[in-house]
Amino acid sequence: MAAPDHDPPRFFDRALLRRRQHRAQALGAETFLFDRVAADMDERLGAVVRTFDRAIDVGSPGEAVMQALGARAGKAAAIALPDSDSEPLPLAREAFDLAVSLFALQAVNDLPGTLAQIRRALKPDGYFLAAMAGGDTLTELRQAFAAAEAEIEGGLSPRVAPMVDLRDAGALLQRAGFALPVTDVDRVVVRYGHVFALMQDLRRMGATNILSERRRAPLRRATLARMAEIYGERFADADGRIRATFDIVWMAGWAPHDSQPKPLKPGSATMSLEEAVKKAGHPSASRPGEGRDP
To answer: Is 55 a domain residue?
Structure first.
C-alpha cells in the first residue's frame, strides 16, 4: 500500500508514546480501564451474529485483546501502529473479516488515513470495532492545570490533546468509507483520594502528555501545588475524594457489501411525508399543532 502523499499535522510524538508505554510496564502497568474496555469489546463482538475467520488487532496495548479474539476468530494477529504517519499499516488488502483497536487510535496523527487503511484491509462485509479515549476525558485535570498555569505563570502550555467526540467519530467512519457506522460513549468516573494518585495511574497507563508541542521545561512546583488545590476545590465530592472522567468513544462499521441495507436515492420516494402521515391516520394529519408542547 502506498504511503500518504502528504504529511498530516503532527500533534503527537508517537516515539515518545512508545517510551511512555515501556515505562508504564516497568512501573507496573495499571490496566483497570483497559480491562473494562476489553471486556466490553468481547461482549459487543458476542452480540454480532457472525463468525470471523481472520481477525486483526491494530495497535492495542497489552494481551487482553488477543486473548479475547482467540475465542472469537479462527485466526488472530496483531500489529503495532508505526511511529511515523508516513508509514502505511502493514495490512494486505481485503485480508481480514474483523479488525479491532482499543486505546490506540486517539494518539494517531492521521486518523482519517488510518481508518481508511483499516477499511481497505477488511473483506467486503468485514466488521470494524474500536474504542478510544475522547470526549471529556480528564476534563477535570485539564481545567485545573489551565487555571493554575494562568494564575501562576500567566499563560498556558500545550497539555490538551485533540479529543474525538461522538459526532466526529461518526463522520470519520463515513469519510473512511465504512457502511452502517455506529458510535456511542461509555462514561467512566473514577474517584481518587488526591490528584497525585490519579497522575500516578496515568503514568502507569502510559497516558501522560505526548503532544509534540509540549513544554520541555520541568513543571514548576508552585504550579503543581496550585493545580492540586484547584482540582480539590472544583471537583471533590463531599467525602473529599476527587473525580476523574474518562469518556470511551466506541466506533463500529462495516466494509461495504451489496447485501447491506442501502438508503433510498433522493427523489425515489413514491409518497410524500404528508400523504404517508394521512394514510397512517396520525392525529396530527387532521389537527395540526394539537398535543405539541409549548
So the answer is: yes
- Structural domains counted in the chain: 1
DSSP string, 117-182: HHHHHEEEEEEEEEEEEETTTTHHHHHHHHHHHHHHTSS--S-------HHHHHHHHHHTT-EEEE
Residue 127 included in any domain? yes
Residue 294 CA to residue 54 CA, distance in Å, equals 55
Tens of pLDDT, residue by residue over 20-77, are: 888 888 888 888 999 999 999 999 999 998 889 999 999 998 888 999 998 899 999 9
CA 206/CA 203 separation, integer angstroms: 5
Determine the Cα angle at 247 with ends 133 and 141, to 5°. Answer: 85
Whole-angstrom distance, CA of residue 182 vs CA of residue 109: 22
Cα–Cα distance measured from residue 152 to residue 278, given in angstroms and rounded to the nearest whole number: 66
Residue 30 burial (CB < 10 Å; 0-12/13-18/19+)? Answer: middle
- 158-to-11, 126, 281 alpha-carbon distances in Å: 10, 39, 58
Q: Are 119 and 256 in contact (CB under 8 A)?
A: no
Q: Output the pTM of the full model.
A: 0.81
C-alpha triplet 61, 143, 133: angle, nearest 5°:
20
Q: Which domain holds residue 209?
A: 14-138+158-215+244-285
Residue 52 lies in a domain: yes
Plot region of 94 (φ>0 → left; ψ -120 to 50 → alpha; else → beta):
left
Structure-block grid coordinates of residue 25: 510496564
CB 37 within 8 A of CB 130: no
**Average predicted confidence (pLDDT) for the chain:** 84
Tell me if 89 is assigned to some domain: yes
Q: Give me the CATH number covering residue 84.
A: 3.40.50.150
Q: What whole-number distance in Å separates Cα of residue 237 and Cα of residue 56? A: 42
Terminal CA-CA length for the chain: 57
